Amino acid sequence: MTAMKSVRFREAIRMGMVEEMERDDRVFIVGEEVGHYQGAYKVTEGMLDKFGPKRVIDAPITESGFTGISIGAAMVGLRPIVEYMTWNFSAVAFDQILNNAAKIRQMSGGQLHVPIVLRAPNASAKQVGSQHSHAMEHFYTHVPGLKVVAPSTCADAKGLIKSAIRDDDPVLYMESETLYNLKGDVPEDPEFLVPLGKANVVREGGDVTIISWSRLVHISLQAAEQLAKEGIDAEVIDVRSLRPLDEETLVASVTKTHRAVVAYEGWPYGGVGAEIVDRIQRLAFDDLDAPIERVTTLDYPMPYNAKLEQFVIPNVERIVGAAKRVAYRSA
Amino acid sequence: MAKIIDMPKLSPTMEEGQISAWHKKEGDAIGVDDLLAEVETDKATMEFRSFDKGTLLKILVPDGSIVKLGQPVAIVGNAGEDISQLVASAGGGAAAPAPAASPPAVSPHVESPQKAAPAEGAPAKEPAQPAPAAAAPAPATAPAQPAPPPPGGRVRASPYVRKLARERGLALGDIAGSGPHGRIIAKDLDGKQPVARAAAPSAAAQGPLREPESKPLSMMRKTIAKRLTESKQTVPHFYLTIDIDADPLHALRERVNEDLASAADPNDKNAPKVSFNDLVLKAVAIALTRVPAANAQFTPEALLFHQRIDISVAVAIDDGLITPVLRDADKKSVLTIAREVRDLAQRARAKKLKPEEMMGGTFSVSNLGMYGIDEFSAVINPPEGAILAVGQVRREPVVRGEEVVPGRRMAMTMSCDHRVIDGAVGATFLKALRGLLEHPGQILVL
Amino acid sequence: MKDQDTQLGFYRQMQVIRRFEEEAARAYAQGKIGGFLHLYIGQEAIAVGTAAALNADDYLITTYRDHGHALARGTTARAAMAELFGKVTGCSKGLGGSMHFFDAEHNMLGGYGIVGGHLPLAAGTAFASKYRGDGRVTIVFFGDGAASIGDCHEAMCLAALWKLPVVFVCENNQYSMGTPLSRTLAVADVTKRAAGYGMPSDRFECESVNQVIERFGKAIKRARETSEPSLIEVLTYRHRGHSMSDPGKYRTSEEVDEYKKKDPLFVLRTHLEKAGLADKLTAADESVEQEIADAVKFADDSAEPGPELLAPTTYKGAFAR
Q1: Among this protein's residues, is A247 annotated catalytic?
Q2: Residue B219 lies in a domain
Q3: Engineered SS bond to C108: which of B198, B425, C58, C103, CB 3.0-4.6 Å?
């Protein structure tokens, strides 16, 4: 049952979607270039051939329109997957997500619900500029009625997309363009699911907890390696699920290490990182030996210039610096 | 223009002070050199006088607060001035900068990266190579230095440290914090011993133990604890004891005091009088001139042999012990010594000694004879090389010739820092001292 | 005229809606209803005609001016009034309010408060019908004020592109809140857009329930049989302001009076009276009065929803914190 297959991140997502579409004919996928073009980032490659145009649907550039249509379809029993070319474009569908997907269960007094998955690459890519580099999880996690996940490994990519599709509420699934080529083992078991709301300790350590998700997990692991050379033993947690948030795992780790750094893409004002800091300070107050630090995207729109882009997004150096500060080891 | 008044340095070694009492209250007019407050330093209660003229607008730290040197304690200015910004800057714990005359002109276009990313504790490095100048952010400058702690005697400790302290029964008051703002962090507790454990000798004791009365550590107690712990832990002590025939000394003292009394006004309570200790001090001073190797101090670089004989005299006071210094004891008469020691002791008990009066001793004498102690050994008062612990003059049968007769003896134990004073040196010194005390006529004339 | 009992039935349905709304306005003035209250008075014939033209399992989605459509489709006056009063017995358990009437049992899939935002949803339910091949049609209403918003355009583009069985109905009550059409649309005829989407269209001034049944019926039939969307604009008139906070001062009383004479409810009643049904009309009016009075009492007497209702109507299962 635990046969593994080595695949790329984009294939892991596809495996999960294909398995769920084979399992449940209410599941379909709609988005720009998902069919004939085989996916803007080739996540849906081959799916049109496999499932036909009824279930792999090319949409014109109408994010609000096809998001709303999918929500409507979900209201009456289908289980749509919506692919945005990137999460940036969900901004024009924000009203559909905020006012319909997240609200229909309550507005209808529980008579209707919206089992929908919205997915796309998120946050910075490579020099795509200020309008195409948004970390959108910070906007959506604010909204009750939505769930938000952001895997960093191939196995989680598959396990989480499957859980998302089976979930009866709207799940926003955030990928990263820079992870699509990542290779990793994924279980072939079609019942392999990664539950929403469970964080993953990807590296154990006793001196400081580094909390991150998506692409930044890999950067945090690099930072942990560097810290190890300097005698600081970092634990790295991949949050995976941003809402619901697995505060138990975070608190357990900080209770052990007494220090935490939250590293992620997104601006410093508010956001998921601030939420995590709030939970830890409330739930693990007596175990903190230092203020929690955040390593975020700097507080600017994303510049195009390659060096400035690297300057603005969180990197190994800044994570190492923050970890040393909370461990009271001056750099 | 209102300004922040910082805790001044009131003694050469002062690092922090406790405001024992404010002598002005908010709203009071103050003049230059007016007494603002009394401050208990590591050694004494000092007067904190104003350098400014104006009105005391705000007291930032209440009576009893312990404040680091240079930290804000008050705001002085003209009555009615708006001091909210000053209060905020003082209360924020940052080293209160002198308020600028006007808000600094900041270009809205040029912000440093750290300023723009307030969540980031430290700046990111600049890009490896400078980006085009027009677009480049202002170069990252060094981060603000961690500000010294704000005023107030509150112990700064991380929540985790407080939890550990509760669990281990540690008192945080005397633990030095190595974190920012003097914050005590977890590693500062390494090796710290619980204070409560000694007070609870038996865990098997039945029923709930009565809680000990908790008394905050005074500055003096902290200093005593720190310095004597350091002494016992780092100075290799050894002890030499002599027991002298004190009959001659006793007889001399009786005689001298009778003679002094005959010359004084019988109603004068301050009429001169000589104690055993005064005589011992003079004898010690003379002995040190004869055995200068005992008037020495160890430093890691060199042994220091003092060219002056300044004797620290241990004085018990209400809540501790201080050691004012009797300067040039070898050059002073017994009567002068008697007067000076009495004055020093009185001012010590009133906490009115100046810091310099408690510094720079070369040898200590501690006398517990008045408490009926026969003999004891004392802890060396660093950085001095030795201390002499003097017991009471005991009446006891002594063998004189072939007879046992009533006599007087006095025991003295010298604690020596073996790094600088060897056994033979100590013994030679005590031999000289014994010679002086058993033939005390010399003391009066040398 | 068709069978008199049917007409009498339409009259009664319209009368229920009108009296319901008049009592709702009174309750609003009494402070029993909070927030927004958008009245449908004058437009009842459209709701009643629509309900008659649809199959019971067809989907209906509308705007925040949703009381009439819910009542016409079968939501009881009790459940509707209780919803306005914010009571747990309301059609949305008191969580939706005036703007968010939902009645899944009667395939009334909701009143929506963001202008135009519900149009893609309707295309979506139609998408689901086509995907499943269940033969259902979706009808969706929007006001003339929604005609210019992006979602209206996107929903129609996609419905036409994907040939979805949906009927878009613009209930043109002449005012986008307080702004007359002449100041919001360069082309006053909304249906002229249909050509751009490649969609059949129809446009008429609402005179009667029968007329609505006939004209909507064609579009519904087309959607059901050939899966083609349509765009219909029906010209109507609301007698009241946009909402309770709108006194409607941008219209003259003469204008309002002129339209009241053309009011389909007034016209139908006059017609039935002339046909000798005065007694039956009186009986119908009395039963409507009883029904509405009962609804108000029911709403008054009902319990309010408790906080325990909040979590399960936000997420299924464990709350996603």
Answers
A1: no
A2: no
A3: C103
Q: How many domains does the structure of chain B reveal?
A: 3
Q: Among A61, A67, A92, A106, which would you mutate to test the C interface (most chain C Cβ atoms within 10 Å of its Cβ)?
A: A106
For chain A, domain boundaries: 4-187, 200-326
CATH of domain C4-313: 3.40.50.970
**Scanning every residue of chain B, which has its alpha carbon at the shortest distance from the alpha carbon of A263?**
B120
From the CB of residue B398, how many other CB atoms can be counted at a distance below 10 Å?
A: 16
C residues 270-309 lying closer than 8 A (beta carbon) to A: 309
Q: By residue range, what is the domain housing residue B158?
A: 154-194
Name chain A contacts of C100, Cβ cutoff 8 Å. 107-108
Q: Out of 3.40.50.300, 3.55.40.20, 3.40.50.920, 2.60.120.590, select the CATH number for domain A200-326.
A: 3.40.50.920
Query: Which domain-ending residue is among B43, B64, B91?
Result: B91
Q: What is the pLDDT of residues B39-98, one digit of tens each?
A: 887 767 788 888 788 899 989 888 888 888 888 899 988 888 888 888 888 764 433 333
Whether A4-187 and A200-326 share one fold: the answer is yes
**Nearest-CB residue to C125 (from A60, A72, A108):** A72
Question: What CA–CA distance (Å, rounded) separates A59 from B69?
Answer: 70
Quote the minimal CA–CA distance from A322 to chain B in Å.
7
Note down pLDDT in tens along chain C; length 321 residues: 458 899 999 999 999 999 999 999 999 988 999 999 999 998 999 999 999 999 999 999 999 999 999 999 999 999 999 999 999 999 999 999 999 999 999 999 999 999 999 999 999 999 999 999 999 999 999 998 899 999 999 999 999 999 999 999 999 987 767 777 778 888 889 999 999 999 999 999 999 999 999 999 999 999 999 999 999 999 987 777 767 767 677 777 787 788 788 899 999 999 999 999 999 999 999 999 999 999 999 999 999 999 999 999 999 999 999
Among A77, A107, A112, whose Cβ lies nearest the Cβ of C95? A107
Strand intervals (E) in B80-224: none
What token pair was written down for A26? 């209410």
- Residue B217 domain flag: no
Per the listing, tokens 């649809």 go with C54
Domain A4-187 has CATH 3.40.50.970: yes
Answer yes or no: do B185 and B238 share one domain: no
Quote the CA–CA distance of B216 and B225 in Å, as a whole number: 13
